[in-house]
Write the structure tokens for this entry.
Amino acid sequence: MRSIRRRTLCWCSVLLGLLVWALSDLFNGSTRREAGGTTQRIPGPPGGSHLMVQFRHAALELLADSAPINSLQEDQLLFVGSTQGSEKPPHEKKWGYKVLKAAKKQDAMLRDQDVSLPEVRPPECLEDMYSESLPSASVVICFHDEAWPTLLRTLQSVLNTAPKDFLLELLLVDDFSTHDELRTALSEYLSGVNRVRLIRSSKRLGAGGCRSLGASRASGEVLVFMDSHLECPSGWLEPLLERVAQDRTRVVSPIMDVIHWQTFQYNATQWPVRGVFNWNLDFYWESKAEQPDWDSDSALEPVLSPALGGGVLAMDRLFFHHVGAYDPGIVLWGGEHLELSIRVWSCGGSMEVVPCSRVAHVHHQHRPPKRFPDQEQLERNKIRIADVWMEAYRKIFYRRDTLAHFIRQSESPNITERLLLKRTLGCQDFHWYLSTVYPQLYIPQDRLGLSGELYNMASGGCVDHRPGHGGAMIIAPCSGTGSQHCELNSQGEVRWGPTGAWCLDAIEGRVALSQCASHRPIRSRLQWTFLKLSGQLQHQHSHLCVEAVKASVPPSVPPHGAGDLFLRPCTPHPAQQWLFEQLVSP
Ligand code: UDP
Ligand code: MN
């Protein structure tokens, strides 16, 4: 029975691989089309549905007579305060972009634009309290097929806001873009702009490789890596430079606010926030609500961050090279900042988010983790992180990401040089990282027979979680991907999900998820016993057993549940018989 199921799982994985491959082709086409400057839709005033096209041509035409990109006035930022409710909710307001003044020199033109972003920093941040002798900065902006107006807007907002005294240069690195205007008009467009240098790569380097290239050409004391779709309010650079100047091994990020790519809604990120990741090696920004134990309450003090995203990242240039730049084995996109983060911490540096600096990131339509074209590559990048940096802890990752496991079984990454670097720099191991830098990450026990997919004998399905339905658990087809992995630990909790922060709970007779207790003793409501002989999963508090009950109406919301999970008096019925199945051998 189990061997049949295992074979089915293997086939499922092969089929899944094919599906991902087929979808990637499909999505590849559509992403490319979307990313093209000519077809991306930016909402304009009524009747202006072809705004982008007009915009781009307008900019190109204007180029001829050295006039500014004055269509920027068309776009508007709609300010939306944090949904979680900040202390002083900023009032809703429309923020427009003023028209650029015509200027003779393009440099002046690029600097003249007046961009108003909503002010969400505490007033103390705005007082001029920065040393006048901050280190010089090289801003490195990589782009691959970025939409023309977005790229120029990013460039302009950096030039408008970074003080001349500190901004030594802005290196724009073209990572082998295919769009015509980026390949041709851009060089001409930038030729008269002071401090801006355009570097073109002759092959696709990927986000990390491209940044390493920019860094190798930079001469500023501090490197400021930035995405090609950002809006910077004034005063964002100084706090970052100051923190790096105080400690050259410090790597810092502003608070990243979010601008919706289509509506241009501005969403302020609530402070405090820090960068973290889960056992699937996915990076995310974590707010205080997700981490109740967090003790930072200061609005002005930077917080240490186990990881940082790459939207804006400032670090000492020599330290960047010392610590091994970006891992050249991380290809295209995905995981490069997480790899850098673990490396920086493990090899003598630190990371923090600086609240007096804010920059807004324009999210595209196809945001990760749904960007299929690079899915397999993303897995390979994660495999590198696991194999270079996680030692025995990497197994926790492979159990939750079986696609990575299967890729790893058929190919070995060449990580010799990175392991050598790790040794040469005398880096700490992952145990040190987890206990010192990120002690909040739950470390699963993954005991054999008590962890894996929770398979139900009667329905042939596995326990799953239907997102957005009050944490209710369901029975769904077994995924085989590791997405349904859970574990019964020695404290009697059934931990669910890649952070392990969610626990099976009994709520009104149903099985649902709630946040696991962060302190001992654990409430008995969150404790379960697995009766190995009968295969029953018993709730310790009520002594009831988990039963899979067929759904009367097939739910329309994916994942399509085949049943719901109830707590019922224990009976020896297959609907109450469960098996923890590990997909990946320990
Ligand atoms: N990028 C690049 N080459 C690539 C992929 C990305 O130069 O192969 C650039 C991209 O244009 C952007 C930055 O790297 O400026 C980060 O990429 P993206 O914004 O897609 O990543 P995310 O913000 O989602 O982490
Ligand atoms: Mn980005």
The chain has 16 helices and 26 strands.
